[in-house]
Design a protein that fits this description.
Layout: H1 3-16, H2 18-44, H3 48-62, H4 69-78, H5 82-85, H6 88-118
Helix pairs in contact: 1-2, 2-3, 2-6, 3-4, 4-6
């Protein structure tokens, strides 16, 4: 897992407390994955306006977990930079980055839960 993702999530714990942070992440992960899938579909359908709207809605959520790379890609979609976002390579990089961030968050959540089980 990437250090910056862990740091962002640890900051979430500092702000909310561990239990609320874990509940927040558990609630958000499936929704973020749904948005990842929908964004992929919208880009494939070349529905730039709907993709931009979804990217905008997703930005505030990923800022909690992201190291900046996913945020940058979503900002590109939000700007409707069609010359860039229409490229298969961009779309694949976006999906890969999204999956990497989500996997990092899932790993963090598993670590927190494992630590809870092992603590007295």
């Amino acid at each position: 897992m990437e250090y910056k993702i862990t740091l962002a999530l640890d900051t979430l714990i500092a702000d909310l407390g561990e239990e609320e942070a874990v509940d927040f992440v558990r609630f958000a992960l499936p929704r973020l994955n749904e948005r990842r899938e929908l964004l992929h579909t919208l880009l494939l359908q070349e529905d730039w306006k709907a993709a931009a709207s979804l990217a905008h809605k997703t930005l505030s959520s990923v800022r909690v977990y992201d190291d900046g790379s996913l945020e940058a890609a979503l900002l590109t979609v939000e700007r409707q930079a069609v010359a860039e976002i229409s490229q298969a390579a961009f779309q694949q990089d976006l999906q890969d980055t999204f999956k990497r961030v989500l996997a990092g968050v899932e790993a963090w959540l598993e670590t927190i839960e494992r630590n809870r089980l092992n603590s007295p």
